[in-house]
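Deviations from the work plan: none for this task. Representative record:
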Amino acid sequence: MGKKSKVIETRIQAKPEQLKLLRGVVRDAVHMSGCSDKTVERVVLAVNEAGMNIIQHAYKNNPEGEIILEIIDNDTELLFRVTDFAEPVDINNIKPRPLDKLRPGGLGTHFINEIMDEVVYSIPKCGVGNQVVMKKTIKSD
Amino acid sequence: MGELRAVTYKITQHAGYSVVHLKGDVDLSTSPIARKLILECIEAKHSVLVDLSEVAYIDSSGVASLVEGYQLAKTNGVEFGLVNVSQAALDVLQLARLDTVFPIHASLDDLSKVMR
């Protein structure tokens, strides 16, 4: 992280209705970075999907959980680090489903991979929970 | 319109279709009710159009509700389509490669014209 990096940190409870708060923070941050409106909305979707995955698959809909979103803007790219404190999930199981078979669900990981330039899943250094870091290069389009 | 936290809805009738109008954000907190509205109409053997003109945001859970509606309509032998799709919703459907799967109508007054 360079000297000029700007960091925004947001904490929400793992409740579906709190995702709207997360989206608002992401929308403002990406908009201020100079991305086009279309890119702003796509990045909002990707971060929302990461939050949804945590609520549904990591916390298994337990609303007591906490989600931390850090947005790091270093002027050329935006990093979105999303952390939870649930039981670690098997990273090998996080993959998009094929789109050729029509079925409800399973699109979130596809959206994230399609929208972001780089996506890395890991277990935080403290050994508890899960973390995903998503990178988006800043372009005015 | 009924209240759905971040989204509101109403159901109208048009040319033999039940039209489910959604307004606002269709996300993890609101898609279960959107899903219920759509599936109840189809289970009652009504052809359904979902009006997305005032949908500002839709995520994968909202898209899943539309896919379920589409599949149940096929099973029940009724029609399912989308109408007045907002740019925000269309962009998400394109990302999911579903813009060529759902019948998408430009407007209620022009149901014969399917947008692809």
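The CA atoms of residues 35 and 66 of chain B lie 7 Å apart.
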